[in-house]
């Protein structure tokens, strides 16, 4: 009789993570048979005698009847969950639901998604729901665990493949000495510290853990910061484009490459424990696979990119081939003894990030992989966590690995603090960077499962490490989220507005360009801004490209760097701007930039550039992508838009251009230099309206521009702010005094009782053929002028008046410029309190 000890699972994780085929299932069974025969001979047993029990560890044998096809029907009294297919679907529903609920609960605490997912997996495992025998029998029977764990392994495989696709290893070449110093010091100090601790604690360690290869693996893991752990957390917190976020990403990429080398070295050491021949074959396998991907696969990828035509999507067949290729490479790496995780990750590195290929792969596969396969990966991790076993284990078993893990975490934090001294950061920024580089996540979880399978650690130690890693991320993330606010420097105490810029001085403008279609209106607006020798324009043109298919943002100064060919769309935009600059000779200075950045952090790059270039105004063309709602990282319940974030944090004034009619023709403003143009200013009072009037004054320097100013006032001055009223009066008097002699301005005052009368008066003006309407956004407007209009506006970024005159319901083809004056530091935005009123007068 052979008694079986419960093992890790019904399949060997070692074959997936390390590819070691020296301990295959059949070989192990053969060894068990030999051991059984040897025991019989030693006992002098005959065939008729009762054999003694022989313990064969780590060989779980599961005998289970093959389930029928999934055609069960509850109406015929079938047990629905008896069918494996339905059981897998139920497991997916459970884990996704649990993680979403945990995510909802933890979101106010600013917890990253990975924490919720790991907690969800632990809840599914034997520590919580799995402790109930009935729940385990129904939802986690051995055969279902087998399938779920294999799906989890596939999830990790695809996750690492996508991480490799997003990673830009060219960052290593671009990194300076300071970044390399941070990487080296941040790794060397923990390695030395942990090695000393290992030597001191070695007598108390398990024999498997005290091996040289095990020590190297543990020290290496605890000393590095994984890019594909840090990136998704920074992405969730909108910190990818921040200064500290960029440093953390570039540092982690360098560390990851060094970590791959460490991994190969430690695997060679582990194979050497089985003999020199095993180590040699492992090295040969690594070299063969790397050569295959570096030559054959790379040429195939280059052929796909060269065959692709600009402006057309990558053919679906190529995406299918590459995703299938990740499975083929994973199979080969497993067969060669390299490991399934390594092969898929290396293949991802071969594929260029960004458009056209990398972005297409990510767009078409990321949702499916992250939201369907990865939940099973967290089931795999959670089903191996047993908190009861951890608590029941003797402290002498746990304290060596616990001490090492804790010292490793603390050591890495202080090592990064020391290394970051060369970066000239503030103390808060250094702490935030060090905490970012201390994050734990998917990579650590994968390797800890591998350690468990190799016998380096047991279930109690594994459970403790998983909880410790999750706890570190749980604690660290909200701390650096609170310490580091990338928007804090944007609010300054010095005026950067058109109103406060002397008339005969240089005007600095930051143009935000989304695509070539929005460029025509911007060029026309620049022409009407009328640069002169006394008042030239200093233009910073920023082409904003959505970052898809890569992880690290790119910021390119065209005067110093060459734009990658895969972002060729920027060439035509900047060439058009250059031709316009040449036509103006010394009247315009042009500085061209391209930013490949996430949509959610666009405002950070725009505001940072406006701050560093000391821009007077940011001009943004109204684009539907910039007013699409997205989660607001600063609030757990509200959504926001790119345009709203820019307007809320801009260190200068902001102008939003809605181009219609003739403004969509790039030659409109210069096609007939002697044509007379009719513009109108809707002056409703307040800082935004005063800034709009200052911009209109700038346009009146053009002798072929006529300007009509309509001022709206409340009847009997009801609701007026005395100070704002005086400022408005002073601004209008200055404007009239400067331009009255030109006889190209008109002025009219309209008194109204509420918002309905305000819109009715504006509606009556549309019959005059004005080519552009200039309005202030909303700040400082007398609430009486907008009374009853609180529910009317579709785009709060434009303000009620701006939204109305730019809407299709207004019935004109006039362009609209909505202006917001700079918000100084310490000043809170005051929004008028409006009462709802139904509008049905037209």
Summarize the structure.
This protein has 842 residues and is α/β, with parallel strands linked by helices. InterPro entries: Cation/H_exchanger_TM, CHX17_2nd, CHX17_C, CPA2_transporter, Na+/solute_symporter_sf.
Task: Please supply descriptive tags for the structure shown above.
842 residues, alpha/beta, eleven-stranded mixed beta sheet, two-stranded parallel sheet, elongated, disordered N terminus, disordered C terminus
Description:
- With 842 residues, the protein is α/β, with parallel strands linked by helices.
- Helices cover 52% and strands 10% of the residues.
- It is built from 29 helices and 15 strands.
- Strands 5-6-4-3-7-10-15-14-11-12-13 form an 11-stranded mixed beta sheet, sandwiched between helices.
- Strand 14 (772-776), helix 29 and strand 15 form a beta-alpha-beta unit.
- Helix 17 (395-419) packs across helix 18.
- It is elongated, with a radius of gyration of 33 Å.
- The termini are far apart.
- 44% of the residues are buried.
- The model is unreliable at 1-59, 634-639 and 830-842 (pLDDT under 50).
């Amino acid at each position: 009789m052979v008694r079986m000890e419960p093992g890790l699972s019904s399949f060997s994780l070692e074959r997936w993570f390390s590819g070691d085929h020296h301990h295959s299932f059949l070989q192990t069974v053969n060894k068990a048979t030999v051991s059984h025969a040897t025991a019989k001979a030693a006992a002098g047993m005959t065939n008729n005698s009762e054999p003694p029990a022989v313990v064969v560890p780590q060989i779980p044998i599961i005998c289970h009847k093959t389930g029928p096809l999934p055609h069960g029907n509850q109406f015929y009294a079938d047990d629905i969950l008896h069918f494996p297919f339905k059981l897998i679907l139920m497991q997916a529903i459970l884990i996704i639901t649990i993680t979403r609920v945990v995510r909802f609960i933890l979101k106010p605490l600013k917890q990253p998604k990975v924490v919720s997912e790991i907690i969800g997996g632990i809840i599914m495992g034997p520590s919580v729901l799995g402790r109930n025998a009935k729940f385990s029998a129904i939802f986690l029977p051995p055969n279902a665990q087998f399938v779920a764990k294999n799906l989890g392994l596939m999830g990790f495989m695809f996750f690492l493949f996508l991480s490799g696709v997003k990673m830009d290893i060219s960052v290593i070449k671009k990194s300076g000495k300071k970044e390399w110093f941070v990487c080296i010091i941040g790794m060397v100090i923990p390695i030395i510290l942990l090695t000393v601790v290992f030597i001191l604690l070695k007598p108390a360690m398990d024999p498997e853990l005290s091996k040289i290869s095990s020590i190297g693996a543990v020290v290496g893991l605890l000393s590095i910061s994984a890019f594909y752990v840090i990136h998704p957390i920074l992405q969730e917190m909108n910190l990818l484009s921040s200064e500290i976020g960029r440093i953390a990403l570039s540092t982690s990429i360098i560390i990851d490459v060094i970590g791959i080398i460490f991994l190969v070295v430690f695997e060679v050491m582990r194979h050497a424990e089985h003999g020199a021949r095993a180590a040699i074959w492992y090295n040969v396998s690594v070299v063969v696979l790397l050569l295959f991907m570096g030559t054959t696969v790379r040429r195939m990828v280059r052929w796909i990119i060269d065959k692709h035509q600009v402006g057309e999507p990558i053919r679906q067949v190529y995406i299918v081939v590459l995703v299938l290729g990740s499975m083929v490479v994973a199979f080969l790496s497993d067969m060669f003894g390299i490991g399934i995780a390594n092969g898929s990750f290396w293949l991802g590195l071969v594929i260029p990030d960004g458009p056209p290929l990398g972005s297409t792969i990510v767009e078409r596969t990321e949702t499916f992989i992250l939201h369907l396969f990865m939940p099973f990966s967290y089931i795999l991790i959670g089903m191996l966590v047993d908190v009861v076993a951890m608590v029941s284990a003797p402290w002498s078993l746990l304290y060596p690995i616990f001490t090492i893990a804790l010292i490793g975490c603390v050591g890495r934090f202080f090592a990064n603090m020391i290394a970051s001294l060369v970066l000239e950061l503030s103390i808060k920024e250094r702490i935030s960077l060090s905490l970012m580089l201390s994050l734990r996540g998917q990579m650590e979880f994968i390797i800890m499962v591998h350690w468990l399978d190799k016998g380096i650690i047991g279930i109690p130690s594994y459970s403790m490490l998983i909880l410790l890693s999750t706890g570190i991320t749980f604690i660290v993330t909200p701390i650096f989220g609170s310490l580091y606010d990338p928007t804090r420097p944007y609010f300054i105490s010095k005026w950067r507005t058109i109103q406060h810029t002397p008339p005969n001085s240089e005007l600095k403008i930051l143009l935000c360009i989304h695509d070539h279609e929005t460029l025509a209106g911007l060029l026309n607006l620049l022409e009407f801004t009328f640069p002169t020798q006394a008042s030239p324009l200093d233009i910073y043109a920023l082409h904003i490209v959505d970052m898809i298919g890569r992880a690290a943002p790119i910021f390119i100064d065209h005067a110093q760097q060459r734009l990658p060919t895969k972002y060729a769309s920027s060439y035509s935009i900047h060439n058009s701007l250059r031709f316009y600059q040449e036509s103006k000779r010394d009247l315009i200075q042009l500085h061209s930039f391209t930013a490949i950045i996430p949509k959610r952090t666009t405002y950070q790059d725009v505001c940072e550039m406006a701050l560093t270039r000391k821009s007077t105004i940011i001009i943004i063309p109204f684009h539907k992508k910039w007013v699409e709602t997205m989660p607001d990282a600063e609030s757990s319940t509200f959504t926001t838009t790119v345009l709203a974030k820019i307007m809320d944090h801009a260190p200068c004034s902001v102008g939003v251009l809605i181009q219609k009619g003739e403004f969509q023709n790039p030659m409109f403003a210069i096609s007939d230099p002697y044509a007379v143009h009719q513009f109108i200013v809707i002056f409703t009072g307040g800082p935004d309206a005063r800034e709009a009037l200052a911009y209109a004054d700038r346009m009146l320097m053009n002798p072929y521009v006529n300007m009509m100013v309509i001022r709206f006032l409340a009847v009997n001055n009801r609701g007026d702010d005395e100070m704002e009223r005086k400022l408005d009066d002073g601004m209008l008097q200055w404007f009239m005094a400067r331009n009255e002699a030109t006889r190209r301005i008109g002025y009219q005052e309209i008194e109204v009782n509420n918002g309905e009368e305000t819109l009715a008066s504006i509606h009556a003006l549309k019959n005059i053929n004005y080519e552009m309407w200039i309005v202030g956004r909303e700040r400082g407007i007398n609430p009486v002028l907008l009374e009853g209009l609180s529910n009317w506006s579709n785009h709060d970024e434009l303000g009620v008046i701006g939204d109305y005159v730019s809407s299709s319901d207004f019935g004109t083809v006039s362009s609209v410029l909505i202006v917001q004056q700079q918000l100084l530091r310490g000043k809170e935005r005051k929004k008028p309190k409006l009462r709802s009123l139904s509008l049905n007068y037209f």
